[in-house]
Amino acid sequence: MKKVCVITGGSSGIGLSIVKLFVEHNYQVFNLDLSPCAIGEFRQCDVTNVEQVSEIIANIAQQHTIDVLISNAGIHFSATIENTSEAELDNVFNINVKGAYAAIKAVLPSMKANKNGAIILMSSDQALVAKHNSFAYNLSKSALASIAKTTALDYAAFNIRANAVCPGTIETPLYHQAIDNYCQKSGADKNAVHEEEAKLQPLQRLGQPEEVAELVLFLASDNAKFITGSLQVIDGGYTAQ
Ligand code: NAP
């Protein structure tokens, strides 16, 4: 029987690479995202809507045993604390943190009943180090690292593991959007900024979404059955500096 994986934000970037890899590895994948996706089983969903997330996941759980949850949907937002309005803070928090809360809460009854489950939260290297001009995003990614730890402790007795993946700079549409916004504001040249970004990484290049997907596949598998409550860095050495 196929293992079942629920992912949020699987229609683009890192999430899409995860969906492709999990399908290749014979998982049945349910992708909760705003935008449709041809791979996996798409469920239109806004993760900020806790009731909607809960209903969609309860429906899946009625027909399947959910083995894996990957809470991945997220947005980036660049600003200092002074330049972050209350509405902008709420928006980042609602998508990045409340979305994870909604998805985890919704899969737990099924995972508890089966005494089995792997939960993976897409955090960031920014849970470990701060970056300039990134108040709300840093805050949200640190919160996800905390959720991984508390969930790991509270549900270890049910054989449910929870881990956070902390990618460095990964070349995805989100990354390109962030660079485009910066270049528009500053007038900087995109190619030059892109090269500078690569040079900031000890491995002298950006990460690729497929590389993050491989780590997530490992964490979801039985090969990682003693790993829980951890923050798994995949950042080309950035946070080692
Ligand atoms: P991406 O290409 O923008 O993909 C994010 C996906 O999440 C998109 O499909 C997006 O849908 C979806 N999404 C956004 N808001 C949603 C909502 N309210 N409900 C449901 N789905 C929603 O970004 P990515 O770079 O792959 O990032 C994926 C995750 O990795 C994020 O949590 C991000 O913070 C984290 N991360 C990324 C990097 C990086 O350098 N790229 C580094 C560290 C961590 P739409 O396209 O329709 O909006």
Automatic annotation (TrEMBL):
Keywords of the record: Oxidoreductase
Keyword Cell inner membrane in annotation: no
Domain of life: Bacteria
InterPro entries in alphabetical order: NAD(P)-bd_dom_sf (IPR036291), SDR_DHRS6-like (IPR051122), SDR_fam (IPR002347)
Membrane-spanning residues: none
GO MF assignments: oxidoreductase activity
Record bears the keyword Ribonucleoprotein: no
PANTHER family: DIHYDROANTICAPSIN 7-DEHYDROGENASE
Entry's family note: Belongs to the short-chain dehydrogenases/reductases (SDR) family.
UniProt name for this protein: SDR family oxidoreductase
Species annotation: Colwellia ponticola
Lineage: Bacteria, Pseudomonadati, Pseudomonadota, Gammaproteobacteria, Alteromonadales
